[in-house]
């Protein structure tokens, strides 16, 4: 049974969870750009990576730290924690162990940082469910295809209308109910469509239509995500993002870089995180 002793404590710390149950959707790239965007605005941020096997986000940040040290750069870094799955024997023991270790980390971060970003594994797990239940903002990236849309709902093959919610959508609804019972809090669920092509296509329009219909039925916010750009993947070995590219990379800015930076700015505005608009106004003065 999923339980969380941290829920209900007013701390001023906003919890962002990046999660779905499918890999390859640009989850860690999205998480990294959100983290560095917040750090650039002088927010304090901690990262909690729940995928101890892959550690995609933690590895991204390790690359960043190494690159900064090797090139004598001052790059903003969050506090990083990794919580692995339990190795105990029974399910009851494993669940209790994971609840305790998850809550110890979260209790230590609440009130100490402005934001905690939790990166979930690309599969269903007890730790992932714990994270979803404490989210203030839940970001679910999906690729621009009906394969990824199936993560949210089943679609009629003839008219592409939504017929049935998926197990993941039902899990998010369950997390919303648990959160409301715990502290009357609300989870702002954001579905972002990643890796979209610049070219218009019939499939692209159909996915968009299905998502707009599902947005009304499931009560999430559907926003544009990151386009299909090689530059996002090229920056992983250096641990860099488009947010700090100009200050930390010797390569020249291209039109792809400029367009990607605009995507990041638009995404951060669409997330509507607490204090973001105020920090934008202060930065413009």
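^ Assign residues to that structure.
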């Amino acid at each position: 049974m999923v339980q969380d002793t941290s829920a209900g404590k007013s701390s001023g710390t906003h919890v962002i969870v990046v999660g779905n149950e499918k890999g390859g959707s640009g989850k860690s790239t999205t998480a990294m750009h959100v983290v560095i965007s917040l750090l650039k605005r002088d927010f304090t941020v901690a990262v909690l990576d729940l995928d101890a096997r892959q550690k995609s986000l933690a590895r991204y940040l390790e690359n960043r730290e190494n690159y900064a040290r090797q090139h004598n750069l001052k790059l903003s870094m969050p506090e990083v924690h990794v919580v692995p799955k339990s190795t105990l024997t029974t399910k009851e023991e494993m669940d209790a162990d994971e609840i305790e270790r998850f809550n110890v980390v979260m209790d230590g971060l609440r009130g100490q940082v402005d934001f905690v970003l939790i990166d979930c594994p690309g599969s269903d797990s007890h730790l992932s469910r714990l994270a979803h239940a404490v989210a203030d903002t839940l970001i679910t990236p999906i690729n621009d295809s009906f394969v990824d849309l199936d993560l949210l709902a089943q679609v009629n093959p003839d008219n592409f209308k939504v017929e049935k919610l998926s197990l993941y959508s039902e899990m998010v609804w369950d997390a919303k109910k648990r959160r409301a019972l715990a502290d009357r809090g609300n989870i702002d669920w954001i579905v972002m469509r990643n890796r979209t092509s610049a070219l218009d296509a019939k499939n692209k329009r159909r996915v968009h239509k299905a998502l707009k219909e599902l947005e009304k039925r499931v009560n999430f916010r559907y926003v544009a995500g990151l386009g299909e750009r090689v530059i996002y993947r090229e920056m992983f070995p250096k641990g860099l993002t488009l947010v700090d590219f100009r200050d930390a990379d010797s390569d020249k800015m291209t039109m792809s870089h400029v367009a990607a930076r605009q995507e990041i700015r638009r995404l951060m505005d669409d997330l509507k995180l607490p204090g973001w608009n105020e920090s934008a106004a202060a930065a413009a003065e």
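Residues 91-109 form the longest helix (19 residues).
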